[in-house]
Design goal:
Helices cover 41% and strands 17% of the residues. It has six helices and five strands. It has helices at residues 18-30, 50-60, 76-83, 95-111, 131-139, 150-156; strands at 6-11, 33-38, 67-71, 87-91, 116-120. The strands form two sheets. Strands 1-2-3 form a three-stranded parallel sheet, with helices on one face. A two-stranded parallel ribbon has the order 4-5. It is globular, with a radius of gyration of 15 Å. Bound molecules: adenosine-5'-diphosphate. Adenosine-5'-diphosphate binds next to helix 1 and strand 4.
Length: 158
């Protein structure tokens, strides 16, 4: 049984996509509270600043009353300890995500045995969708309608 009321959905969300929003929406139906925790991923070069990514996620999830968007820095396991919440939500699009997500879930559990990772699968329309692909399309002048929330689309084409 889930004893916790809140679950954390961590990621870099650069930029947030409709795939991320699909996962947030699904998670918000499973838990009384979802904390979307935005961070900088050291292995990625970000297009949008942390503050902009937080603002975009806040705007895109405004219709979901039990979703809170925050930012954090440093080790996720330490952040979870700090807020005393140990359920993690991650999205799985395809088999190609599995290896990395599996490794990360086990490493997080290794860092803190209380951490449980729950994987959610998005609508099949979003299984091909990634932030990096959205950035590439926008950079080359392509349309991102239907791939990202409206506020993100506006920002991408500015
Ligand atoms: P990170 O840099 O931590 O991998 P991302 O913002 O790329 O952060 O992704 C956060 C989470 O959302 C990851 O679990 C990723 O697999 C998932 N995700 C990304 N795109 C999609 C999508 N289109 N559908 C479902 N889940 C997704």
């Amino acid at each position: 049984m889930f004893k916790e009321l809140a679950a954390v959905y961590p990621g870099s969300f650069d930029p947030p996509t409709n795939g991320h929003l699909d996962i947030i929406t699904r998670a918000s139906k499973l838990f009384p509270k979802i904390i979307v925790a935005v961070t900088d991923n050291a292995s990625k070069q970000h297009m949008f600043s942390l503050d902009v990514r937080v603002a975009l996620l806040k705007e895109a999830s405004a219709g979901l009353s039990n979703v809170e968007v925050v930012s954090f820095s440093g080790l996720l396991a330490n952040y979870l300890e700090k807020i005393n919440t140990f359920i993690l939500i991650r999205g799985l699009r395809a088999l190609s995500d599995f290896e990395y997500e599996f490794q990360m879930a086990l490493m997080n559990r290794n860092l803190n045995k209380n951490i449980e990772t729950i994987f959610l699968i998005p609508d099949q329309d979003y299984t091909f969708l990634s932030s990096s692909m959205v950035k590439e399309i926008a950079a080359l002048g392509g349309k991102t309608t239907g791939l990202v929330p409206e506020c993100v689309e506006k920002k991408l084409h500015k």
